[in-house]
Design brief:
The complex is a heterodimer of chains A (about 300) and B (about 280).
Chain A (H helix, E strand, L loop, with lengths): L1 H4 L3 H34 L2 E2 L7 E2 L3 H7 L2 H32 L6 H9 L6 H11 L7 H8 L14 H26 L3 H9 L4 H12 L1 H16 L3 H6 L14 H10 L4 H27 L2
Antiparallel strand pairs in A: 1-2
Chain B lengths: L11 H28 L19 H8 L2 H33 L5 H10 L5 H15 L5 H5 L6 H11 L4 H9 L4 H12 L1 H17 L2 H6 L8 H10 L5 H21 L1 H14 L1
Helix pairs in contact in B: 1-13, 2-13, 3-7, 3-10, 3-12, 8-9, 10-14, 12-13
Classes of the chains: A mainly alpha (about 300), B mainly alpha (about 280).
Chain lengths: ~300, ~280
């Protein structure tokens, strides 16, 4: 205590700061950084969890490059991203744009759109899985049947399964994006709109010249946020196709599901670690490209 | 926004817009409505597309809860979500506060290091975490499920942003009054960022309540499952009927829906805050 009392105010600050940071610094080192390094290290090793860890060099990466399942999974993962992100971006903007102009029961309407965001992906995957079942079980096919329309194979078809799995993921995230868009729209100063009204400018010009350009930061946030989400899709896919994880002929299998299978069903740790490094690289590249594209010009 | 001078009802376009949005909203809640409605139906009525059960029953709930497993999973998820939420509130705000209000060598490095954890996907860490849990005997335990989520870079960043809004003068005044740094953080700074703490609490709680991948990996006995992991396996039991799966899904979702309905405005404001700041 005497030692502490003799310190200058500045030195006392340093002592306090590092006291406060001690536990968190240890936590981040042990639970985040060390495992990151370990994952990269394991990706260069061959290991089935029981035997010895042997050095494999780039073998896992070469194996991945030559693995047709990986390329199928790679295409699926980007299909989730390239369909999911634009669809949810456009839908959420259109909803937010109009919802912002509605006064009657505004709070109630907003609640209806936001509610799915509060649900658990696993629970909802099972609800949607039930919707997609064949007659007489599934809701969608029952509705189609009542109109005399032939039933649709949703989850058991190689072409329909991926969109069918993606739909609940888009549905669940939509409310969040609507709320963020509405906040962005509210933040635009009304003086811009008043000036436009005085000039007698049409709504389309207002939308494309004022609203959208001023929403750029919001759009950047939503695009980055939702594409990271779609690249990491797992819960929905896993639970909608548990009897056959990844759907028919891997039609719905995303990268995270492949990682899970390789590591915890086949216990091929090195190979799975290489896949996680690839996922990390993809996430990094995609977010950097998006930030650059959307922030410039 | 200024209120419109004309009542909305006189405006045809406005009515159409309202109806379209209302229809969309109804579609959005439909899956949740069907989940709840089916959980209240008798087995023979499940395949009826009517939303309203003819003879509503709580039998499915009694059946699922009598089974006992859902109680355990519910309690497991609750304990894990509560502990991680408290831990995040304390540590994220303490670190955010320190990085914001203290000048000390190494500050920038610590900040950048914590920020950089946002770039590392959980999926990359699950294999090392599994190996760690295995060698430390953390597999299949509460600690094993929750240790990765005790602090988050996102929370730290969010709290740091909000501590920027606390004037340094307040902190100086407290120092002159003789409070030590821990007291200043807890009694002066923390009360001033309550809205941010509420937003963070909602995010962490919801995130841990619905977390799936890591609990799926780290647990292997039925007693340690969290609600999403338990539900996932429960649905796979070949003889389980859809009305029971919907009941299980409802049990896992209804608590968050109730919390949402009570704190609706608060949660939406929190989402906006976290979204725009994060």
């Amino acid at each position: 205590m005497n030692l502490y009392r003799n310190l200058t105010i500045k030195q006392k600050q340093i002592v306090w700061a590092w006291t406060f940071l001690a536990v968190p610094v240890v936590f981040y080192s042990v639970i985040r950084f060390y495992p990151t390094a370990t994952a990269i290290l394991i990706s260069f090793q061959d290991w089935n969890l029981l035997g010895a860890r042997t050095w494999a060099g780039f073998d896992n990466y070469i194996k991945l490059w030559n693995d047709p399942v990986f390329w199928k999974v790679f295409r699926n993962t980007f299909a989730y991203l390239l369909i999911g992100t634009p669809v949810s971006l456009v839908l959420s903007f259109v909803i937010a744009y109009h919802l912002d102009k509605v006064r009657f029961l505004h709070g109630f309407m907003r609640m209806m759109y936001f509610l799915p965001f509060m649900t658990s992906a696993v629970a909802m995957a099972w609800v949607w899985r039930w919707f997609y079942q064949a007659v007489p079980i599934g809701l969608f096919n029952n509705i189609l049947a009542s109109f005399g329309i032939a039933q649709i194979e949703f989850l058991n078809s190689t072409t329909n399964a991926l969109p069918a799995v993606l739909a609940p993921a888009v549905w669940a995230g939509l409310g969040f994006q609507v709320i963020i868009f509405m906040a962005g729209i509210r933040a635009i100063p009304t003086s811009y709109y008043e000036a436009a009204r005085i000039d007698g400018v049409g709504w389309w010009v207002v939308l494309t010249q004022i609203t959208l350009p001023l929403l750029r930061p919001t759009i950047v946030f939503i695009v980055v946020f939702s594409s990271i989400g779609f690249l990491r899709i797992f819960d929905h896919v896993f639970n909608m196709t548990t009897n056959n994880p990844g759907g028919p002929l891997n039609a719905t299998k995303p990268l995270v599901l492949m990682i899970y299978d390789t590591a915890f069903n086949s216990f091929n740790m090195g190979y799975a670690a290489a896949q996680t490094v690839v996922l990390f690289t993809i996430l990094m590249i995609v977010s950097l490209i998006q930030l650059r594209l959307l922030r410039s010009n | 926004m200024a209120k419109q001078s004309k009542p909305a009802t006189r405006n045809m376009g406005q009515i159409l817009r309202w109806l379209a949005l209302f229809g969309g909203g109804v579609l959005m809640v439909m899956p949740i409505a069907y989940m709840i409605s089916t959980s209240l139906k008798w087995p023979h009525e499940v395949y009826n597309v009517n939303l309203i059960p003819v003879e509503p029953t709580l039998d499915n709930y009694l059946y699922v809860l009598e089974d006992g497993r859902f109680y355990m999973w519910f309690i497991n998820s609750g304990i894990i979500a509560i502990v991680t939420t408290i831990s995040n509130l304390l540590f994220d705000s303490l670190v955010g506060y320190t990085l914001c209000k203290f000048k000390f060598p190494g500050r920038t490095i610590v900040f950048i290091a914590i920020l950089s954890t946002l770039m590392i996907p959980t999926e990359m860490l699950v294999i090392p975490w599994y190996l760690m849990s295995q060698s430390f005997g953390w597999l299949d335990s509460y600690w094993g499920i929750m240790f990765p989520g005790l602090m988050t870079g996102f929370g730290t960043f969010l709290m740091k942003q909000f501590f920027e809004t606390v004037p340094d003068d307040f902190i100086e005044a407290a120092r002159i009054d003789g409070l030590n740094e821990l007291q200043i953080w807890w009694t002066v700074a923390m009360p001033l960022v309550k809205p941010a703490l509420a937003a963070l609490a909602i995010f962490v709680f919801l995130g841990n309540w619905t977390a799936f991948l890591w609990p799926l990996i780290v647990t292997n006995s039925t007693e340690m499952y969290t609600i999403p992991v338990g539900l996932s396996g429960f649905g796979d039991e070949a003889d389980v009927a859809w009305e029971l799966i919907m009941t299980g899904a409802a049990i896992s979702t209804i608590p968050t829906l109730i919390v949402f309905l009570i704190f609706q405005r608060f949660i939406i404001r929190g989402v906006v805050m976290a979204g725009l700041k994060g």
